[in-house]
Amino acid sequence: MNHGLIVSVSGMRGIVGSDLTPELVTRHAAALGAWARAAGNPTVVLGRDARTSGAMFAMAAKAGLISVGAEVIDLGIVPTPTVQLAVEHHHAGAGLILTASHNPVEWNALKLVGPDGVFLDAQDGAAVRDLVDQGPDRVDWAGLGSVREDTEAVSRHIDQVLALPQIDVELIRSNRFQVALDCVRGAGGTIMPALLERLGCHVSAINLEIDGRFPRPPEPVPEHLDELGRLVRDSGAQIGFAVDPDVDRLALVDEHGRAIGEDYTLAFAVQAVLGRNGRGAGPDGRAPVVVANLSTSLVVEDAATSAGAVFERAPVGEANVAQFIQQHDAVIGGEGNGGVMFPQVHTGRDAPVGLALILHLLATTKLTVSGLVEAAPRYSIVKVKVPRRDNLARTYQRLQSRFADATADSRDGLRLAWPGRWVHLRPSGTEPVIRIIAEAATADDAEALVSECRDVLDA
Predict the structure, then answer these.
(1) Which residues does 357 contact at the CB level (< 8 Å), separation at least 6?
(2) Is 46 buried (19+), middle (13-18) or exposed (0-12) by CB count in 10 A?
(3) Which H helix or E strand runs over 342?
């Protein structure tokens, strides 16, 4: 099935062999290299996840980058956040990540990173796309770029996580946590076992092979984590961790083997950073700021505000959340899909950082995962996907008329909110679908919000 390329602010993704081809990758890589070179820094960091198409696209990307005179630093198979950190470490002009993140194995994608280690914003992304359309200028034989390898990027990433003052490494080690781990045969196998070992954990693991042959749908949502749940129960683990193929999303399974939902990943990370009372934890003694996207659960907002933090919502997309974090000088942020963004490391989703913060929270509170869930206000969240439709403006107008008593936010699709409940409808930037997410005090209430949105869509 040909879905067509899905182009977002900071990259593009598609089905390998039909939508996404080596020729396209070469052209886009050349455009990124030309953009970096024009800005005065032709060094580009290249990394990829473990997908079977990755090696082919890496060769195509290197050819494109070399053809415009870029100096390529090749990391090989590494997590997405590792590439972002390496861009900063090498003071590179750009980064290129070949990964389709949580998409199925037949997909791949290009993610474009700026010199600050953050995904390109709308303006810079448009500038690169203009170069793609124009055809970037190629250099002659004397100006061709080169390639060198960096094999230490993952080790540096682990060192940066363990050096964080917010993480009491010795306290975590003293707990000797029993941990279950599922890396879905992606890039997580390059970093997660090593990080857990250095944190003194006893690890039972599945799917550590780094071959990109995903044994289950790779998105780490509860319905895909049954095997990890069984591993938790069989091994007596205190917590289970699952990552997506490029290791920027982290999902949790409690000590009973129950997947608790990705939003709790960010909620627990916020609790770890803010502690019992976050007042004074912000810059200059001001109340700290926490940022999440419009589709993130109220459990994250509650975790922030109960500790005295100011809570801000940004449009969906890592680049948008990163921009809000920087604008508000936030202490932590992220997305409700299990993406923790801790700017003391870098302003990008980072599963290793999330894992360390959550183990720190378990060590300091002495609570179980289920105990942490029970201690927080409870909500039911429902997430559905429907086929993409054209011209959603009319749908948004009809929904606002139907729910005239709601607070409407139209920065990214349409989010309608009331005290203690909300619904968000928006076209996905990563799949050819429309996402409808609703949250309320009960599952029935959340399902009802989703059903009304679907009725309006289908009318």
Answers:
(1) 166, 167, 268, 269, 272, 273, 340, 342
(2) buried
(3) none
Burial of residue 235 (number of CB atoms within 10 Å: 0-12, 13-18, 19+) = middle
Say how many CA atoms lie within 13 Å of 341 toward its Cβ.
Answer: 29
| Cα(22)–Cα(64) distance, integer angstroms | 10
Largest CA distance in the chain: 67
Domain boundary among 151, 182, 211: 151
Q: Using the predicted structure, report yes or no on whether residue 215 has a pLDDT greater than 50.
A: yes
Integer Cα distance of 197 and 179 in angstroms: 10
| Structural domain includes residue 178 | yes
Mean pLDDT confidence for 57-85: 98
Q: Indicate the residue among 357, 375, 393 that finishes a domain.
A: 375
User: What does DSSP say about strands 433-440 and 421-427: parallel, antiparallel, or unpaired?
Assistant: antiparallel
**Nearest one of 116, 97, 112 to 51, comparing CA atoms:** 97
* Catalytically annotated residues: 101
DSSP state, residue 50: S
Give the 3-state secondary structure percentages of the chain, helix then strand then coil, rounded to 5: 40, 25, 35
Structural domain that includes position 18: 6-151
pLDDT digits (tens, 9 = 90+) for 303-333: 999 999 999 999 998 889 999 999 999 999 9
**Same domain assignment for residues 256 and 367:** yes
pLDDT of residue 11: 86
261 and 327, same domain (yes or no): yes
Looking at the structure of the chain, the number of domains it has is 3
Whether residue 48 lies inside any domain: the answer is yes
pTM as predicted:
0.94
Q: Measured between alpha carbons, how far is 26 from 133 in angstroms, rounded to an integer?
A: 13
> Within this chain, do residues 132 and 168 fall inside the same structural domain, yes or no?
no
Query: Tell me, what DSSP letter sits at residue 37?
Result: H
Distance CA 381, CA 27 (A): 41
pLDDT at position 302 over 90 = yes
pLDDT (tens digit per residue) in 22-45? 999 999 999 999 999 999 999 999
In a domain, 314, yes or no: yes
Q: Is the pLDDT of residue 2 over 60?
A: no
The candidate with the shortest Cα–Cα distance to 209, out of 372, 41, 52, 420, is 52
Residue 1 lies in a domain: no
